[in-house]
Write a structure and sequence with these properties.
single chain, 437 residues, mainly alpha, Growth Hormone, Chain: A, globular
């Protein structure tokens, strides 16, 4: 077990962790129910399985497109403005979306157009939230415990991302409007928790004054740093191809025939795997052969996705999704640690924005891809083909980015360390431990 103090001994990090957990739980609980309502409205309206899958594809596209367009500017905002304020504003906007959805659902007035409009708004606000919160975490802890802090932050994000849908499915069974009402409450908790983070000294960007030049500098940095570029794009293509989550409503209603209760169980299986893996790393941080292990984890992710695709047994499906969650969390932990530690603080907002774009491309745009492919060749073939694509991506990336095969530790290169020292990096003198914890 690591001898370093726990990041939870720092009050600011505790507040940040609670905020990120509650916000992500609310986000992904809402997204599952949005998908479930979309699919059911389409099927009950007379659409075939393929046509209804196409509606799920459209929901994914509507969430991705505004984030794609705004990404350069959301990263710039995270580097120029107070990241806490940006986070609070996005939480209030998502609170409004949750209340709208709760109202329409409670009054049994939900329509596809309402869901489409909310999907667009969520895409916009999440585009700003991701870079702001992702770049805030390294400002809260000393560098000596940053890998542990990233693991704990990943617990909050990954657990929220996968447990959120499970909770949403259970609440939907109680009453359809309840997931949105609970999500609204969670957004309030997230905003309040973020407000508890005390003022922190943070360096101003050293980038040129012109905003477009600042955006360009962040993208150029990602392109030139092969470790960051390889890590980001590996996740982009692997998860983009092998994303089965968007088709959970199809499996729950028409393949496994387990209904809304089974839908929540499908969402919960990867949640358990991801949470247990992240919890393990929070106590036993990975130290050796981090690059090769990330490649292996993504390969396991693809293989388990193929197993889920062909399963007609609920027990086997849950087992495969558990492995999917474990492998996904394993790669997320390594990728996020490498990206944060290999990026100077004055560029973390913009680099986090690029990372956020790839996450959204692999999730929301991946939903569009999976739904569209299911429309063309059927859901089982679409998921299986995606899993095979993830495995092929690992093999190709091992050749295109040899640094991923040769990276042994999380230690950043000398140029990043020199950039932090030259800029008077504040996080290296992060707040002292909170002895009252």
């Amino acid at each position: 077990m690591s001898s370093e103090p726990s990041p939870f001994r720092i009050a600011n990090f505790r507040a940040f962790w609670v905020s990120r957990l509650t916000m992500t739980l609310a986000q992904y609980a809402m997204m599952l129910i949005i998908g479930w309502q979309t699919y059911n409205l389409a099927r009950d309206g007379g659409m075939s399985v393929g046509e209804a899958s196409g509606q799920l594809a459209l929901i994914g596209l509507l969430q991705f497109f505004p984030l794609f367009v705004l990404t350069p500017f959301t990263g710039l905002a995270a580097d120029r403005f107070d990241r806490r304020n940006l986070g609070r504003l996005t939480m209030m906007a998502q609170l409004g979306c949750a209340l709208v959805l709760a109202g329409f659902t409670w009054n049994e007035a939900m329509s596809l157009w309402v869901l489409y409009c909310v999907a667009v708004v969520l895409g916009v606000v999440r585009g700003f939230a991701g870079p702001a919160l992702g770049a805030l975490a390294p400002n809260l802890v000393p560098k000596t415990v940053l890998p542990s802090a990233i693991a704990l932050s990943s617990i909050a994000w990954q657990t929220g991302m996968i447990v959120g849908p499970a909770v949403g499915g259970v609440l939907y069974e109680v009453t359809p409007a309840l997931p949105y009402a609970v999500a609204a409450l969670l957004f309030v908790v997230a905003a309040v928790s973020l407000s508890l983070i005390k003022d922190l000294p943070r360096q101003k960007p050293r980038a040129p004054a012109h905003p477009i030049q600042q955006v360009r500098e962040g993208m150029v940095y990602v392109w030139r740093n092969k470790m960051v570029l390889g890590s980001i794009t590996l996740d982009l293509f692997a998860v983009f191809l092998a994303g089965a989550t968007a088709l959970f409503p199809v499996y729950a209603r028409d393949i496994l025939q387990v209904g809304a209760t089974g839908l929540s169980q499908l969402a919960m299986a990867p949640a358990i795997g991801a949470a247990l893996t992240a919890l393990w790393f929070s106590f036993r941080p990975l130290k050796n052969n981090v690059g090769p292990k990330m490649l292996l984890a993504v390969g396991a992710f693809g293989a388990a996705t193929i197993g889920f695709a062909f399963s007609t047994s609920m027990a086997l499906s849950l087992a495969m999704l558990f492995v999917v969650g474990c492998a996904d969390m394993f790669s997320v932990y390594i990728r996020q640690s490498l990206i944060q530690l290999h990026t100077p603080d004055d560029k973390r907002g913009r680099v986090s924005a690029v990372s956020q774009l790839t996450i959204s491309a692999s999730n929301e745009f991946g939903d569009f891809f999976s739904g569209s492919l299911a429309f063309l060749i059927g859901p089982v073939a679409a998921v299986a083909l995606g899993g095979a694509g993830a495995i092929a991506t690992v093999a190709l990336w091992a050749v295109l980015f040899p640094v991923l095969r040769t990276t042994k530790t999380f230690d950043p290169p000398e140029d990043v360390l020199e950039a932090e020292q030259d800029s008077g990096d504040k996080p290296s003198r992060a707040p002292a431990e909170d002895k009252g914890a």
